[in-house]
Amino acid sequence: MATTRRQIVALVGNPNSGKSSLFNQLTGLKQKIGNFPGVTVEKRMGLTTLPDGTTTEIIDLPGIYSIYPRSLDERIVSEILLNHHSPNTPDKVVVIADATNLKRGLLLASQVIDIGLPTVLALNMMDLAVKAGISYDVDKLSRKLGIPVVMINARAGSGLEELKKVISTPMKASAQPIFTIWEDAKAAVSEIRSTLGVDNDYEAYQYLEQPNSLNFLQAKDRTTVEDIRDRYKFFPGKFQGAETIQRYKFIQDLLDEVTLKQTDFSWKEYSRRIDRVLLHKVWGYAIFFALLFLIFQAIFAWATVPMDFIDGLFSDLSQYLHAVMPDGSLTSLLADGIVPGIGGIVIFVPQIAILFAFISVLEESGYMARVVFLMDKLMRRFGLNGKSVVPLMSGVACAIPAIMATRTIDNWKERMITIFVTPLMSCSARLPVFTILIALIVPEQKFLGFFNLQGIALMALYLLGFVAAIGSAWVMKHLISIRERSFLIMELPTYRVPRWANVGYTIVEKTKAFVFEAGKVIMAISIILWVLASYGPGDKLENARDYVLEESANLRLTEEGLEDRIAAYKLENSYAGIIGRAIEPVIKPLGYDWKIGIALITSFAAREVFVGTMATIYSIGSADLEDDNTIKTRMKEEINPETGGPRFTPAVGFSLLIFYLFAMQCMSTLAVVYRETGGWKWPALQLIYMTTLAYVSALIVYQVLS
User: How much is the pTM?
Assistant: First the structure.
């Protein structure tokens, strides 16, 4: 029996209109992240239950101002709204408009109405509209537009039941078009409709205006559109300006009729006063960097207790498995491979959650938009613009969505430079590596009686990554000779108290994605590593005790010392040890041994695998299974056989930190860069440049400190 197709409702709106807040309220935790078919632009999908008991799929589309696309994000939205023959075409569209600036939102709403999709207009931020004294005749607005109009406050969740009720009601497209097709275009529009089976005049008009933006058109259909345009001398943008003027005339007349009380902008005065400080040319930067300092202090200070608990929990679990399971390969795989590997990721959940919590609060409060505006002037000196700050800041979480976010940058040169340098920003995958190495080499002491030295070291690494990114951008600015001017145009939202439910959704969603996405890689790498470290060629591993006894015949070893030598001998002669030994000559000038070399290789799957790799290697190499040593303790106790001192000296630790700070160790990022740039040229240059920068920088650090 065929299953009934689930209704699809698309949320469309201007940036900062409250679209994401509405999506979170409708879907709660029933969300998932995906990409649009054929592209790497992120879309959020979720499910909501309507009053009639049916389940509807909600799609949160990227924010746009108009269906005439200037960036790829906007083009994707245009394609979805204009492709009426796709199974993914939304059944209904909810246009979210800022009630305090309805004129801007109505331009997009009028275009969606004319496209011919059943449309609902949601007037959001009604709490701010009330504060501003704005009042609308909603019934008249609904009649004039020919669509349902609902008043909501997405942040507080008010008006949602009314919106759901409207969505559950059968609905047709508006029968009263807003834009009238020009006489000069009617013949071409009519031919498009009859030839390609297009639903209405405005949809056909868009085929003529932007055929190159509509990837869903087949080659023969695209050729047909081009022929019709040539015959009727219809060139792109011919009527676009006149259309915008006509729409705004309609919108102004409409607002004159439905507005009962005009806006009083005095309520925005408190935001302006705050901006005088936060956007100050001196204090603005000082406050921004102070906030960064607070974030990195919190990552260490607040996460210590839960991290210690998780660390001990996985150590106890490993010991428990050894105690209750019989000796053998399966026990070793579970206790020495899988459990330490997964523990090496889960232990950093508190720090990841804290990082995303801060980022979410900055976005929710409206401060992140100020950071973009504040940094624009600085960014332009390095070949970027204010829009580049969003990918760079997002790169602190993950380079993959950050690189996708560059699609909002119109200027090709600035977009390419941003893509190239974004991986130099320290992403959350580097955080586990940073924190464990900092814990090994930086004492847990207070500076000036208050500041945590480890937090200062972490912030210094993030700032160094930012300096490397903008420095590299400055070099590329002079290497790429294309001259194309760009401008930053954006509206700063008013300051708001963060909606903690939205912050919570973000923390859960991002942390869950980090754990499960990294967990898949960690699980696979941990199993492979265990196999490589537990087996080797010949009979050396089976007869390891005999070989060690023969080599140590003249030494007086305790039973514990003998077992340690046997474990070290097995690891060194395993397949993992052979691979590590093979690359050791290359990495030895950096202060690394073959064990660290194994971690460097596996880290190319994902940087955070470093911790899981070290956990697996040192669990296998440890003979004493009764102690409660954790990965940090085992790494701290590792001895350099050449010096007799600790392996992870400050010189080695800082060299590793610098290497991981600059190295391009993420296959997923390279794949996304390939998709975004359309070839292997840019990802290959990225890999070569960042690896060279990492190696040379780590070499200098080690040689200077040692």
Answer: 0.61
